[in-house]
Amino acid sequence: MDDGNDNDDRNKTNMLEENETMRVLAENVAFYAGERVTVMGWAYHVREMGQVTFIVLRDRSGTVQVVWENAVERVKEESVIRVDGTVRQDARAPGGYEIYALQMEVLAGPCDRLPFGLNGPAPGLDTMLRHRAFSIRRPDVAAVFAMQAEMVHAFRSFLRQQGFTEISTPKIVAAGTEGGAELFSVRYFDKMAYLAQSPQFYKQMMVGAGYERVFEVGKAYRAETHDTSRHLNEYLSLDLEMGFIKDENDLMDLENALLEYMMNYLAETCTKFLDTLRVKLSSVGKIPRMRLSEVQAILEKMGKSSPEGNLDPEGERLISKYVRESLQSEWLFITHYPASKRPVYAMPDADNPGLTRSFDLLFRGLEVTTGGQRIHQYHMLVANMRKFGLNPEEFEFYLDIFKYGMPPHGGLAIGAERLTMQICGLANIREASLFPRDRDRLVP
Amino acid sequence: MDDGNDNDDRNKTNMLEENETMRVLAENVAFYAGERVTVMGWAYHVREMGQVTFIVLRDRSGTVQVVWENAVERVKEESVIRVDGTVRQDARAPGGYEIYALQMEVLAGPCDRLPFGLNGPAPGLDTMLRHRAFSIRRPDVAAVFAMQAEMVHAFRSFLRQQGFTEISTPKIVAAGTEGGAELFSVRYFDKMAYLAQSPQFYKQMMVGAGYERVFEVGKAYRAETHDTSRHLNEYLSLDLEMGFIKDENDLMDLENALLEYMMNYLAETCTKFLDTLRVKLSSVGKIPRMRLSEVQAILEKMGKSSPEGNLDPEGERLISKYVRESLQSEWLFITHYPASKRPVYAMPDADNPGLTRSFDLLFRGLEVTTGGQRIHQYHMLVANMRKFGLNPEEFEFYLDIFKYGMPPHGGLAIGAERLTMQICGLANIREASLFPRDRDRLVP
After folding, report:
1. Prediction pTM value
2. What is the CATH code for A7-108?
3. FRET partner for A353 with CA separation of 20 to 30 A, picked from A104, A406, B377, B421?
4. Nearest chain B residue (CA) to A139
């Protein structure tokens, strides 16, 4: 490729499947047997056998074989090509159909050695992430994010059906929601601000604003310095909040139905991606619920101790294994966390002093959700803030709506990358983020 | 309301319309004439007439009148109430049906004087924004964001139908995409980073990664210090990018069809909100396209001069008025902007030296979209960076994918708040953002 002189080529390319030159996607060529079509995409694999060049063309839908006799130029792998040709049925071709090329045009050839081959085994994670856009050309990587997009779509669809309104709340905020020092600071003109750790306060405010049921798909930020396979510093949070609940059980009922819908939707619509990833999805069923103290007692019997009021990653894996074997579930709700380990807004459980109406959800050994009922009474919330050492005056913007009639409510958040990771069986959460942000990674 | 003692009430509330106590939404009471139902929501308006209290109850669906004889307590406005009662047809009731209360329970009463009344005229914008969650209880404010949610939904639906994949790209970045100093800086561990001005580089990379057609609904940040009625420092950007285009006309064709779909979708599904807002939506039709030079010449004839290679807000309003009157269109594509006024990645127009294959879209006098074809040739892009005084080495993460076969491509971005503002006829863009961020506003 050279500067300037490929402007001429541009006018020969086209966009829509519907237009005059009839671009056909790879997955649809079988419908055009005997007809002349145009295909466009990347030269995924190129083999020269004597006078004949075989090119596997890859586009956004999949691949199709192109047969080019008496090639006038060499086509390098990963060139962007446009092929006009005739669709032929041929049992030897992958998929049973191939395109006999009549015209071949290279729209953009690679101008450097490829960082790694796309057909063979993948290089290490670091190389994959460094050349992120290139590595996504691997169908087994592309499938992860295509599936993720459908997963998020299913999240939205279900909640819209249930009367939820989608919201978009600020990510530059004046104060953290989860406490702690894990905040990224932003220079906001002459003030100091932070990146939102979650839309917690805002989604609660929107329940009180009268929408009752809201959800948000947005970024959340945690300035955690530790470098693990299951933490990202910027992640996609699938948040929901709803009013007029009885207690946290309503939320678990909702999430159970939501996940059932999402997994069934993926199983039905993403067979291509799931096959590429060699993933099997099973029905969610009725998710078991166990108290944290019960979980800790089971682990104790297995010789595994737990941190106070919580589980560690090893504990999460062990209890998931136990539940899979004894209750045939890949999912587990853990309930009744102590107030000392939950945020200031967690609703105390009046029947179990010291505990809260909160829960976590484990999936295949990893926490993918935190949720619970929230305090909706203004005076109780102010008192709890004081107990937590927070100054209620700094949270006036949040407390404001609690003064004017706030319904009983609660919500939850699902980490999109964590759920993706567990669905796809990925070893590292960075593989579930298009452009992961971690301790050392700001590019690409 | 007091601390603690309202836990008992909680167990009497409920969540799902489907469950045993049969909560019915206000908009659906007519279907239950003669039956006993439960309604829950806010006491929007309370009138006491002798022994009878009339309460207009507001929930997420709308309002319904409740008639309570021999009330045992006074219900304050904006209390959260639960009413068990019988649905009666009564021509005098708004909507023709009302609920004759058998039981009334206050789930959460206001514990402070309301900042302003919700039934009368709205207070000033500043007060409305200070008590944002409360002001959204006004149906005319709630309708804006309910409509906005549907608008974004329609954007997604159309693009999914056209084979686009939704992506989520990082908002913490190492370098700006649009140049200039209008970047918010973030302390990222021991490095300096920035908030993304747009997903521009990332969406282009995803086209090259093989998805071909991608879109993103995400936050974008501009550290502009000026305080106008049409700028926000954090806004919701509706972005798309697509490969294998012929030129910028393909993008305008797509956006024309997209907007037609979105406006028709709103006109069909949001009649309730549009009526509340007193908004009429007309069909988009074929959007006229005019060159910038042509627009400037028309303005010149009207005695209005323009800044070099651009329009000012007054010019945008005047040309929109002209086009509405002469071409009966509320929309206008302006094309052929000079390279000197467009970003480094804008595709030069080989037929018109010095100009680019870019465009803006005006709607009712305001720019709501910027778009165009991008440079897809690696060497041309590197050369252009140098011409713009940028160091290509700093953009290696972006340039990487251009080395390995990048199809001709382009895209556009729609400012969600701007489009909302113009659809709803709002005077200030802050009214189109749930929690606007501007020069002085970090809370709520």
Report:
1. 0.95
2. 2.40.50.140
3. A406
4. B210
